[in-house]
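worker-3 :: picked Glucose-6-phosphate 1-dehydrogenase
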Amino acid sequence: MTTHAIDEQASGHQFQGQAIKTLLILGASGDLTGRLLLPGLARLVRHGKAEGITLVGAGSDAWSTEDWQERLATSFAAASPDTGTRNDDGALEQICAGSTYHQVDVTAEGSLAELIAGLQPPVAIYFALPPAVSEKACATLEPEDLPDGSRLVMEKPFGTDRESATRLNTILGRLVPEDHIHRVDHFLGKATVLNILGLRFANRLLEPVWNSLHIDSVDIVFDEKLTLENRARYYDGAGALKDMIQSHLLQVMALIAMNAPSTLHERDLRDHIGTVLRASSVHPDFRSSTRRARYTAGSIDGREVPNYVDESGVDPSRGTETLAEIVVSINNERWAGVPFRLRSGKSLGRTRKEAVITFKPVNHLPDGFTGVDSPTRLRIGFGPDTLELDLDVNGPGDVFCLDRATLQAELNASELLPYGEVLDGVLSGDPTLSVRGDTAEDCWRIVEPVLEAWKANDVPMDEYPAGSAGPSNWSTAEVGGEK
Ligand code: NDP
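worker-3 :: tokens ->
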């Protein structure tokens, strides 16, 4: 067996850069496939991409190809028909009619290899499976099972802990070169998240103040009203820290904190993301640098929500948190002393998805000014996609009484939506929006000590009623300020 080093990436592969001919989705009956992947593919096709792709579904369900095609037609039809630059319903029908389904246990020795051997190369294999199943499935493959140019697409969480992520990287490295591995973090396919790069690096205004001299703190918040939504099988084994912070929010933090790359080439960009995450850690006094909580019964928008521990499929002995917050330090010259607070939770009273940059006050405000005294902030909203910048200006009436003005902009969301962007990268062979192997391991390194401390009950498990702002002993005002 050969190990593909990163330096070998650019050389020799017959299908390097060549468009994928077959997309094989493992876990075809799963939630991700139905709700996100198939609609994402439909949007791509409606934009004239993914031309002539053959779609193959596989899973443990005893479906016929006709069952699968019916499901495809429904998912494609549901994927906003209003988008697209051309009428590609014919192309979608063609994909549907040419698609086949295969019942297979992907962890059974040889089963996957046999399936892949019958497909037209190059093939992209999307592991839309539970993480532990993906690892087992990869472990059954040999390099010779994969036709040249194959791409492997791994979902988040990548592995179940640092050790398994390292093991998975080793297995994947034996199978294909690093740039043929797409570790999906669909937040990197969100247009607003990528807009952070344009905002930071294309505006003279921001970069000079983007450091600890001028910035007091950074909050990255992803609070949802959504409850378990029948996903206990996955979520109860993960929790808020692994589900959201370990992957998505650390990637957002990296885009906010990284130095400017000289190009947007995948190696430059991913090197810079990797560098800033390597410098990041959570202070080992976990009682002050982390918090966790779990929801109790409550109501959200008039809907009754049961206690988390009473939800079907939840095992209370796991002690899974539904709200997590960690303060990350970035130990470099630019960010020393600036807390990056990352928070995410379910079943909260309001949806809040944003990064908030809180600026320090001016060094000296001329005596005589009165008025607002709260800090100015830049808010980057991730849905709806917005920008808001606070400025304190002379107000009406008493002109020396300051008034808070907030400049607002709405950003255009990508019509492809995150999974359209993800699939576009996979099918066209561009790994820029995927997480590099070393970075995936580093994200585990950052959160693993926290997980251990929580497991040892070093940090109390707080509670909050579903539909509330969080535990009553947590001040929400300190998380990026109230709006
Ligand atoms: P589901 O549990 O809904 O689906 C998993 C799929 O894998 C099912 O179709 C299941 O079939 C199949 N499967 C399990 N074991 C085997 C096996 N041995 N052989 C063949 N098929 C098997 O999970 P999700 O779709 O929600 O998640 C899949 C991945 O995507 C996870 O890594 C998750 O973290 C990630 N993800 C999911 C998101 C979502 O919103 N759902 C969002 C972002 C990432 P069966 O049901 O018959 O067992």
